[in-house]
Amino acid sequence: MSGEGEPPSDEAARVQAVYRRYATDSRKQRAWRGDNPGNIALRRELVVAVHGLLRGSAEEAVRWLDVGCGTGWFLEALAGESRRLAGADIQADRVTACRRRVPDAEIRQADARSLPWADGVFGVVTMLNLLSSLRDEAAQRAALSEAARVLSLDGVLVIWEPRRRNPRNRDVCFVRPELLVEDAGPRLAQTTITLLPPLARRLGRAAPRLYPALAVVPVLRTHHLSAFGKGSR
Prior knowledge:
The protein is an alpha/beta fold. It is 38% helix and 22% strand.
């Protein structure tokens, strides 16, 4: 087992500072509201796509870990199925919120680079916009190494990240495709999903109807959703 999951103080402080800035940005707060119909449609598409990507491989995995689980919307979408769910997040307030939201899941405060679980215990590990939230490529590589450590031999790592750089957000560290090829293990599947979020969030009540129609346009899809086997890292 790696460390006991106590987040390194410098990384925890960095993340907290980022989210404090986000909290004072009214534009970001409006854009990220969980009740925005566009955000609801985006999340629904992601959940369906993850299941589709895993179909025929690890979809029925008994133990599932979401690294960077936040307040738990994704784990909540998985709850009620025959799985043992777990989540990790570096922010204490988000861990508390996730525990309330998904009370049957095992939620721990932990740095993605030092997960408090034994080797090979999870059939699926998900990292949804997690890698790009880390400070640099060294941190991304360390997080991928930890995901591989806790993944079972036949397990699957699922990664959802932007396809292009975002020069408007200095807190995002773009995940180079080459890094995933080098460090994430054998790629089992990949697809492009996610309607351009600023557009999705402007759809309003029409989101349930318009989001699926617009999301099939290749140029409007902003993220890669990829599945990787454990392989030899």
